[in-house]
TrEMBL record:
Keywords: Metal-binding, NADP, Oxidation, Oxidoreductase, Plasmid, Potassium. SUPFAM superfamilies: ALDH-like. It is an enzyme of class 1 (oxidoreductase). It comes from the Bacteria. Its EC number is 1.2.1.3. InterPro entries: Ald_DH/histidinol_DH, Ald_DH_C, Ald_DH_CS_CYS, Ald_DH_CS_GLU, Ald_DH_N, Aldehyde_DH_dom. This is Aldehyde dehydrogenase (NAD(+)) protein. The keyword Metal-binding applies. The active site is at E250. Residues 12-477 form the Aldehyde dehydrogenase domain. The keyword Oxidoreductase applies. Belongs to the aldehyde dehydrogenase family. It comes from Rhizobium gallicum bv. gallicum R602sp.
Length: 492
């Protein structure tokens, strides 16, 4: 069994109390690693190390170009170790090796992109309306930033936060999910190898009540970036607000996936399947509400059911597997409970609806790809995030009805729709309340394109040029060239 240590101030250390906790493989339920069970003392040490690295030592003396070089070097190391890191993530979270290897080969682009951006953050000279005054602005780092990541894509979602934070000159403390801490600890080895000064990047593992809350409330922490559930995000936001800390929150979703009657049907079928059953539905952007125009509803439902039936469940480390296990036992129970709720509400289960009967999958945390028809948008299965391979199908008649149903939820992270009508594309994409809208595609991300939510789906945006501003603050500098000091009792 693999035994890990935390990475604090450039050193590999056990938890202060010596405790560990087990992490299990979702495919077979077997314990495969021991993770340090950090506590408040460990979290405080990590923040203090990050604060020290920000205020003194080598990091603040580096030029922006030198920071960018370190980030690009880190990107190279991730690329060189992509297969190893992908295997660790699959073992930890049960997602498909095909997907995690794609992610790990793509993640270096975040460090290349923001590494290149590091020395291109410029201030401005303002043609101020005050005589004898020269005014310019500086963009400066915030200080210690905390990244709290979920269990579904730990290193990708860490890159969303870490790359712009370091490019801007901040220091960082990462707190991965207690269910999937191993890959972040493996990643820390690459940060060390890349040559970042001690304390610039730290990893504390443990549970939210001890580690997470300490990181969120520590006086030296300037910003918290979190991806995860709405409930946890609300608590982080409330704690951060007490001391006016900045936050970026990417939270839940109940994304509408709309198919109009003029869509390219086979392409839309593939897009819908990808949107809900890829990653076993364990993504915030999952297209979990399928809205189908009534004219093609029955035909389309038959096609997605027939295709979903062919999905191969099995070992996520095999490239032939298409649907892997759910990552955690609590999530497995949550998904099964929502399936029961949907049945109780009167939705018709036309596919799946439980655990597979294949004995080869009995030790893992598997749920069958599940499709419900006859769903109303006021049902819990249509309003609450299941975070699993469960699709709710809702018919509609007009464009206006589709938009109304799409927006009739507390969430607004993503949406997608399929049509060949350009006028409809422009009107519907403008009307949908979501941070990302895909047209004739689904589940596309880029380090260049902003990602974030409307309504309860979060605050702020990650990725793209604008995201680096979330890790900076603007200082205005005014220099007087006047020979005489003005009347001190009158505002200038």
């Amino acid at each position: 069994m693999q035994t890990y240590k935390m990475f604090i101030d450039g050193k590999w250390e056990d938890a202060a109390n010596g405790d560990t906790f087990e992490t299990k493989n979702p495919f077979n339920g077997q314990t495969w690693a021991a993770i340090p069970k950090g506590g408040r003392e460990d979290a405080e040490r990590a923040v203090e190390a990050a604060h020290g690295a920000f205020t003194s030592g080598a990091w603040p003396k580096l030029t922006a170009s030198a920071r960018g070089h370190l980030l690009r070097r880190l990107g190279d190391l991730i690329a060189e170790n992509a297969e190893h890191l992908a295997t660790i993530e699959v073992t930890d979270n049960g997602k498909l090796i095909n997907e995690m290897l794609f992610q790990l080969k793509y993640i270096p682009q975040w460090y290349y992109y923001f590494g290149g951006l590091a020395d291109k953050i410029e201030g401005a000279v303002i043609p101020i309306d005050k005589a004898d005054t020269f005014n310019f602005t500086r963009n400066e780092p915030l200080g210690v930033c905390v990244g709290i990541t979920p269990w579904n894509s730990p290193l990708l979602l860490l890159a969303y936060k870490l790359a712009p934070a370091l490019a801007a000159g901040n220091t960082f403390v990462a707190k991965p999910s207690e269910f999937t801490s191993a890959s972040t600890l493996e990643f820390a080895k690459l940060v060390e190898q890349a040559g970042f000064p001690a304390g610039v990047f730290n990893v504390v593992t443990g549970f939210g009540a001890d580690v997470g809350e300490t990181l969120t409330t520590h006086k030296y922490v300037a910003k918290i970036a979190f991806t995860g559930s709405e409930g946890t995000g609300r608590k982080i936001g409330e704690l951060a607000a007490r001391n006016f800390k900045k936050v970026t929150l990417e939270l839940g979703g109940k994304s509408p996936h709309i198919v109009f009657d003029d869509a390219e049907i086979d392409n839309a079928v593939n897009g819908v399947i990808s949107g809900i059953f890829a990653a076993t539905g364990q993504t915030c952007i999952a297209g979990s509400r399928l809205l189908v125009q009534r004219k093609i509803h029955d035909q389309f439902l038959e096609k997605i059911v027939n295709l979903a039936k062919t999905a191969r469940m099995g070992d996520p480390l095999l490239t032939s597997t298409q649907v892997g296990p759910v990552t955690t036992p609590p999530q497995l129970e949550k998904i099964l409970s929502y399936i029961d709720i949907a049945k109780g509400e009167g939705a018709e289960c036309v596919l799946g609806g439980g655990r597979p009967d294949n004995p080869e999958l009995s030790k893992g945390w598997f749920v069958e790809p599940t499709i419900f028809s006859g769903v109303r948008n006021d049902m819990r299965i249509a309003q609450e995030e299941v975070f699993g391979p469960v699709l709710a199908v809702i018919p509609f008649d007009s464009d206006e009805e589709a938009v109304h149903i799409a927006n009739d939820t507390n969430y607004g992270l993503a949406a997608g729709f399929w049509t060949q009508d350009m006028r409809r594309i422009l009107k519907v994409s403008a009307a949908i309340q979501a941070g990302t809208v895909w047209v004739n595609t689904y589940r596309v991300i880029s380090y260049m394109s902003p990602l974030g939510g409307y309504k309860h789906s979060g605050i702020g945006r990650e990725n793209g040029i604008a995201s680096i501003q979330n890790y900076m603050q603007t200082k205005s500098v005014m220099i007087s060239t006047a020979e005489d000091v003005a009347n001190p009792f009158i505002m200038r």
